[in-house]
Amino acid sequence: MYDERASTEIHTDASGYGIGAVLVQIQNNVEKVIAYASRTLTKAEKNYSTTERECLAIVWATNKFRPYIFGKHFTVVTDHHSLCWLMNLKDPSGRLARWALRLQEHDFDVKYKTGKKHSDADALSRNPVEEETETPDKFLAVTTSMNLAMEQKKDQDLAKLKLLSNSSKTKNSDSSTVSFAGRIFDPDGKLWLPVIPKHLRADILRHFHDAPTAGHLGFAKTYDRIRKRFYWPGMYRNVVRYVMHCRECQRRKSVPQRPPGRLVPIPPAIAPFHRIGIDLLGRFPKSAHGNKWIIVCTDYSTRYAITKSLADSRSRRNSEVLT
Fold first, then answer.
1. Which residues contact 61 (CB under 8 A, 6 or more apart)?
2. Closest CA to 55 of 101, 13, 92, 88
3. Which residues have CB under 8 Å from 111's CB, separation 6+?
4. Which residues form the Reverse transcriptase RNase H-like domain (predicted)?
5. For 16-58, what is each residue's pLDDT tens digit?
6. Strand partners, 299
7. Is 273 helix (H, G, I), strand (E, B) or coil?
């Protein structure tokens, strides 16, 4: 377990294809390991000189263990004797100068240890952990015109639309849009828009709203992005409903309205019916007398309540009850 009061060391080493580091503390005169770390070198880093690779191991290790060592004095232990003078360079230049500048935020000493006694970090540098690869983004499966045409044949509504577009009546009609081979375009425009079947519309909405590259935009921007690429009847209504019911948006986005004001305490009434509260309940199913609302009047002093049914909720009707 890490102890802030114990002396801390970072053992580093580099090989031709990896770097390793060990965070160590001296607790009760016993050397205890706090953490291990290693990684492979990039193609460019493999071309570094031995001194540069050893210095890279120190820079990377101090950044890796920063939560443990920042603001605390520690010792860097290395088997490369040349690094002992790293912080004492008079005129540093190039890559080593930049690294020396980065290391100046830390308070540390450099200590040399022979390679035979430096086996912990040396073993890690010769068996580094591969860098984690990013999870690939998932995109819509229908990507070709052939696949889209096959999916369109499964939709009954689009099958009916295709029959209409092939009829002579549709060909001779003066319509603002023309449908052909599962695509719709504006005669004045240049962009053909594929018609999306019902069973693929949810995938489109997820891709343009929920995907990491979509950013959970509002319904206006989401709709604008979709309508430039696809078409289906009722698209705007579907986008609005989908965005309004998005769980992540409801959890993380603030409500686009003013915050409620502070509650003002109501002073106590000094006599019966000196102050009353009024509330309107409804709308209820229409009664035999044509009433759909109930007005409730409560006396703040005695808690005596009066109710009356109303045909509508207009203020004139409410005032008649009070008089």
1. 10, 12, 19, 21, 37, 76
2. 13
3. 9, 75, 76, 77, 78, 84
4. 5-105
5. 889 999 999 988 888 899 999 999 999 889 899 888 888 899 9
6. 276
7. coil
Four-residue CA torsion sign, 38, 42, 43, 48:
negative
Tokens of 304: 């005596």
Instruction: Please name the helix (run of DSSP H) or strand (run of DSSP E) that holds residue 170, with its range, or none.
Output: helix 168-172
Judged by phi (left if over 0) then psi (alpha if -120 to 50, else beta), residue 63 lies in: alpha
Give the Cα separation of 209 and 279 in Å (integer). Answer: 41
Which pLDDT tens digit goes with each residue over 286-295?
888 888 889 8
pTM attached to this predicted model? 0.41
Q: Which two tokens stand for residue 187?
A: 């005669």
Question: What's the rounded Cα separation, in Å, for the pair 35 and 101?
Answer: 25
d(CA 33, CA 3): 11
